[in-house]
Every structure is written in structure tokens, then in C-alpha cells.
């Protein structure tokens, strides 16, 4: 029996045994079931409603979010979900009640068919789990702040008890010059300015964590601007 069938059975079992489940969560489970078994139009409506539900944390607990992900995984069956499903389920166990996590899951499910976007969101979950394993508690995902430098709202990927963390899963060699490089530089400088402002009341420092090796050119730039970084396999 393959992974998809095992998870589908788990989903159906949850629906049939959800006597103790409160009404909002039971409704979400029924929508998840519609993604798997419904008509094409029914699946589309169910996906839309489930993504909307992730904006309301009070309605989503760990089992419910696990079944929602299972349904999306079964219906989309992307290689990314297949490869990283264990990471997602572990993150759900750890972070469902962490501020901003449901927003992160919303984006991951929304962009499941767009690997370049989904890979970035997936790496943020990996980085968050690594922080927890190393004893640095993850306090928030997607921390928004007003950047005075650019006069716009920006969002930092993770907040721990020690750091504001920006996660990157990119080929740094393809971002050496031009608009792409300038965009990353402006982003990181905005984050650094925020960490040095009075708004950073806990005095957390900025840390860049990269899934892929950082090029020497970028390391020189980061060191010049006193931005700490880590590379991870």
C-alpha cells in the first residue's frame, strides 16, 4: 500500500471518527475529504475554502492541519510534497500554535505547483525545525514590520529567542549582479536597519541561513555589512 493510500485511509478514518470534533474543525475535515473525493468543481471550491480557513487559527488544530495537508498532498501529488512530507508533518506537530505558521502553510499549499516558490517556503520549515533542535525557540513566522528605509511593509521569515532569520534556498551564483542581486541586498539591508532600530526591543540580531552554498562574492558583501550567515546542506 503506497503513501497516498495510507494517508487517504487516515483521512477517511478521521472523518468517520470525528464525533468529538468541534463543528468548525469537522467542517474543515469534510472539505479536505472533498478535495480527495469530490468533483472537479467541488475540489476547487474546497481548496479555496480550506486556504481561507488557514487565516483563522482558532479553527485549526494539529490533527486538522495534518489532514488538510494530506488532502492537498494526495490531490496535487507533487514531487516536492512527496520528498518533504515528513518535514511538513513534523513542522505541523511543532508549530501549529506558533504565530504566523498557518500563514506559512497557506503560502506553501497555494504555491505547491510552483517549485521555485514552494521550495523557499519548505526550507523555512526546515530551518525552523533546526532552530528548535539547537535549543533556539521559534517564536513567530513571517514577522511584518514597517521599513523606514524603503517606506514599505517587509516580512522576516523567522523570529527566535535570539535572532531574526532570513532563509534563502537559491543559487547564489545566479544572483551576482543586476536587479536580482540588488533586490536581495536591499532586502537584507532593510532587515539589518530594523534590527538596529528601537522597534527591536529584544535586541535580536539578524541571521541569514542558506540552504545552498553562499558564493565568495556574497560572503564578502555580507561581511562588509556585518550580516551574520550560516550555510546548511
What does this structure look like?
This protein is α/β, with parallel strands linked by helices. Helix content is 56%, strand content 15%. It contains 9 helices and 5 strands. It has a 5-stranded mixed sheet with strand order 1-2-3-4-5, sandwiched between helices. Helix 2 (23-37) packs parallel to helix 4 (62-76). It is globular. The mean pLDDT is 84.
Structure summary:
The protein is 56% helix and 15% strand. It has 233 residues and is of the alpha/beta class. The protein starts with a helix and ends with a strand.
Q: Which labels suit this protein?
A:
alpha/beta, 2 domains, 5 strands
Secondary structure: elements and pairs:
Layout: H1 3-16, H2 23-37, H3 40-53, H4 62-76, H5 79-95, H6 101-110, H7 115-133, E1 138-147, E2 152-160, E3 163-168, H8 178-195, E4 205-210, H9 216-224, E5 228-231
Q: Between the first and last Cα atoms, what is the distance in angstroms?
A: 32 Å
How do the SSEs run, as a string of H and E? HHHHHHHEEEHEHE
Tell me, rounded to a whole number, the average pLDDT: 84
Low-confidence stretches: none
Q: How many helical stretches?
A: 9
Shape: globular
Amino acid at each position: 500500500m503506497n503513501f497516498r493510500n495510507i494517508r487517504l485511509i487516515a483521512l477517511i478514518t478521521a472523518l468517520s471518527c470525528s464525533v468529538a470534533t468541534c463543528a468548525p474543525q469537522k467542517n474543515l475535515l469534510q472539505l479536505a475529504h472533498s478535495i480527495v473525493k469530490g468533483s472537479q468543481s467541488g475540489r476547487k471550491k474546497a481548496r479555496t475554502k480550506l486556504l481561507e480557513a488557514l487565516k483563522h487559527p482558532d479553527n485549526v488544530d494539529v490533527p486538522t492541519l495534518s489532514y488538510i495537508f494530506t488532502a492537498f498532498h494526495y490531490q496535487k501529488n507533487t514531487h516536492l510534497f512527496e520528498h518533504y512530507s515528513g518535514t511538513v508533518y513534523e513542522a505541523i506537530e511543532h508549530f501549529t500554535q506558533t504565530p504566523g505558521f498557518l500563514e506559512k502553510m497557506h503560502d506553501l499549499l497555494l504555491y505547491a505547483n510552483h517549485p521555485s516558490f514552494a521550495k523557499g517556503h519548505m526550507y523555512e520549515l526546515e530551518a525552523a525545525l533546526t532552530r528548535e533542535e539547537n535549543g533556539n525557540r521559534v517564536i513567530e513566522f513571517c514577522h511584518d514590520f514597517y521599513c523606514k528605509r524603503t517606506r514599505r511593509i517587509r516580512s522576516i521569515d523567522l523570529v527566535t529567542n535570539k535572532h531574526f532569520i532570513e532563509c534563502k534556498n537559491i543559487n547564489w551564483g545566479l544572483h551576482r549582479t543586476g536587479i536580482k542581486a540588488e533586490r536581495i541586498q536591499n532586502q537584507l539591508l532593510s532587515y539589518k536597519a530594523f534590527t538596529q532600530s528601537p522597534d527591536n526591543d529584544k535586541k535580536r540580531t539578524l541571521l541569514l541561513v542558506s540552504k545552498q552554498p553562499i558564493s565568495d562574492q556574497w560572503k564578502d558583501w555580507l561581511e562588509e555589512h556585518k550580516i551574520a550567515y550560516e550555510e546548511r546542506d
